[in-house]
Automatic annotation (TrEMBL):
It is found in: Cell membrane. Its main location: membrane. It is a multi-pass membrane protein. This is DUF421 domain-containing protein. Gene3D superfamilies: bsu07140 like domains.
Amino acid sequence: METYFNIVVRCIAVYAFMVIAIRVFGRKELSQLNTADVVLILLISNAVQNAMVGPDSSLQGGLIAAFVLFFLNFIYKKLILKNRTIRNLLETKPEILIHKGVADFTMLSKLGITSEELFEAMREHGVDKIKDVKLAMFEVDGNISIISGDHNLKETHYKRKHNHKNLQGAN
């Protein structure tokens, strides 16, 4: 029974660490996964699996760990839904990139969004100039949404691509 209690405690610690790590590294990293991101997720899951179950690699140990993770995720979702303070602490907020045709270059820089990425999102919506954008938002899921002043164009979401120039040099 002590072993199972240890699994529960370890799962809570790993889950808390992962929530904090994702919060620190930001939502833009999660908006569109590429091969390197999937590999990283698989390696992290393998690394923390041992940290969660410890020496108990039995089916019961694995099922207990999985149950605890599902339960923690359920509680996390309920807490951020019902408690504004916790939601503000753990969740990001959408950020305004363009408002009434005026770009917030300070915010773009803070979020690490290049002007090329912004213009690509605008082009995907059929907008050529910043002055024609009614509202551009960096959403909580890491995507850029654009609302133009032209009512004939529909609202679109731009899935942000990652710039991995440093990985290209390694090949």
